[in-house]
Amino acid sequence: MKWADFSKLIKLRLTFLVTFSASISFIIAVKANGGDTWGSLYSSTMWLNWVKLVVGGFLVTSAANSFNEVIEVETDKLMKRTMDRPMPAGRMTTGQGLVLGLGMGMLGTYLLGSLNILTGLLSVFSILLYAFVYTPLKRRSGVTAVVVGAIPGALPALIGYVAGQPHGRIDEIALILFSIQFIWQFVHFWAIAWVLDDDYKLAGFRLLPTGKRDKASAVITFIFAIIMVPVSLLPTIYGYGGYYVGGVSLAMSLLFLYQAFNLLRTLEVTAARKLMFGSFYYLPVVQLMFLFDFIGKVK
């Protein structure tokens, strides 16, 4: 199998973004919890377990994406964006895709479960929810699918944080990281859905809030961009970050909001595309600010 086909099967860019999110949250957990973790940032044990998280997270995400493409092989044949994926193009059978997905899923879950049991369980839950609940829902109810899909979409931040502790637990910081990524999913997803609406409709998907590019869909997207502003400030509000991280998060959120407002004002695909690219930058920048600033404020 060619690397190009494998990268399309696992949705390589999406998988890298997911793995990045989890890897940052892992280091945040180490810094936040001091001695109750795998060791300091200078510990070889800590970095060995970080590698386990990165490899395990990459494999689990790849498995979920493989299952998604196995299930959607017929609809992928209908869309220009997806018809060249290996299964709809006939370069790979669904059986091969399923076997690869199972292999990556089992190995990834083993690696994550070796860190702590909760990390392993969350990874299995993420695969099941994304591949076998969210994927079928996309054809039935666009809004419900987005709500459900936002959960596995935000779980990498939670999984990474839980993995950063030998006795993995979910605390206030973990919930803040999850909340930011959860709300971000809505604006991110609807911006993509707006740009690709014509292609999605070829396969019977209506993923915008109202099912079409209209004022109501833009209003709902804008509302979630508004919600993103206070949510992005949760680390500072709860005392985990200083003014620096608060300022950067606020600036990024206001830029995000401005892009969503432009979509509301124009209803144009070009505005949605700018919002989509803005969402790609938003999450890594904000997460890196958390890593470099607010966890250092934890007492």
From TrEMBL:
Catalytic activity line of the entry: heme b + (2E,6E)-farnesyl diphosphate + H2O = Fe(II)-heme o + diphosphate
Gene Ontology cellular component terms for the protein in this record: plasma membrane
Compartment(s): Cell membrane; Membrane
Keyword Transmembrane on entry: yes
UniProt superkingdom: Bacteria
TM annotation in the entry: 12-30, 50-71, 92-111, 117-135, 142-163, 175-196, 216-237, 243-263, 275-295
GO biological process, one term: heme O biosynthetic process
UniProt keyword annotations, A-Z: Cell membrane, Heme biosynthesis, Membrane, Transferase, Transmembrane, Transmembrane helix
Pathway it works in: Porphyrin-containing compound metabolism; heme O biosynthesis; heme O from protoheme: step 1/1
Entry membrane topology: Multi-pass membrane protein
Enzyme nomenclature, EC number: 2.5.1.141
Matches recorded under Pfam families: UbiA
InterPro entries associated with the record: Protohaem_IX_farnesylTrfase (IPR006369), UbiA_prenyltransferase (IPR000537), UbiA_prenylTrfase_CS (IPR030470), UbiA_sf (IPR044878)
GO molecular function: protoheme IX farnesyltransferase activity
Keyword Cell membrane: yes
Chief localization: membrane
Gene3D superfamilies per the UniProt record, alphabetical: UbiA prenyltransferase
HAMAP family, per database record: CyoE_CtaB (MF_00154)
Other notes: Carbon 2 of the heme B porphyrin ring is defined according to the Fischer nomenclature.
Sequence similarity: Belongs to the UbiA prenyltransferase family. Protoheme IX farnesyltransferase subfamily.
Protein role: Converts heme B (protoheme IX) to heme O by substitution of the vinyl group on carbon 2 of heme B porphyrin ring with a hydroxyethyl farnesyl side group.
Protein name: Protoheme IX farnesyltransferase
Organism: Mucilaginibacter gilvus
